[in-house]
Amino acid sequence: MPAMPLSLVRAGDTVTVSKVRGNTDLRRHLQELGFVEGSEVHVVTSSGSNIIVMVKGARFGLDVKVAQYVMCE
Length: 73
Description:
Elements: E1 4-5, E2 14-20, H1 24-33, E3 40-46, E4 50-55, E5 58-63, H2 64-67, E6 70-72
Antiparallel strand pairs: 1-6, 2-3, 2-6, 3-4, 4-5
């Protein structure tokens, strides 16, 4: 299965982070939230411009524009 952005993952699916893209500050911020290579991400809900995910037991809301930088398998 080829890597796809987290923004395209459907609600209810669980995926594994394969890469975090973007500038240094964005990558660092996402990694501090738990979006590191190999971590599992469960998409709780996905609406037009926001998604809610569970990462390492914590829930986060992400803008779809930011979620495009998290590549998943």
